[in-house]
Amino acid sequence: MKVQVRNLDKVSILDCSGDVDLYSSPRLRESLLAEIRPGGPSVLVSMSGVAYIDSSGIATLVEGLQLSRQTQTRFGLFGLRPNARSVLELARLHKVFAIFENETEAVENIGSTSSGI
Length: 117
Description:
Blueprint: E1 2-8, E2 11-17, H1 25-35, E3 42-49, H2 55-71, E4 75-78, H3 82-90, E5 99-100, H4 103-109
Parallel strand pairs: 2-3, 3-4, 4-5
Antiparallel strand pairs: 1-2
C-alpha cells in the first residue's frame, strides 16, 4: 500500500493505493496521525486506489475519525470502490463517516457544517 499526502487550500488529501490490510494499515495510520491535529487542515482520504480493505484497515479509519472528532478536524472519505464500500456498509459505518463520490464533491463539502466529522 502507498499513501501520498497532498495539500489543497485548507484540506490535506491522503491518496491511498493498494490493499489496506493488517500488514499495510500502520502506514495509513501513521499518515492519518500526522495530518489530523488541532488547528490543522481538514483531512480527506481518497480510496479510489484501494481494491481491498480488511478489519484492520477499517479500524485505522475509525481511529482517524475518532481523532478528528477529538481535535475538531473535518474528516471524510471519497472515491470508495464497490468492495470497500460494501465492507463499510456491512459494518454500518457508512452512516458514521462523511463519504463523498469524488474529490470535487468532497472538497466542496468538507468545510460545510452539515457534512459531519
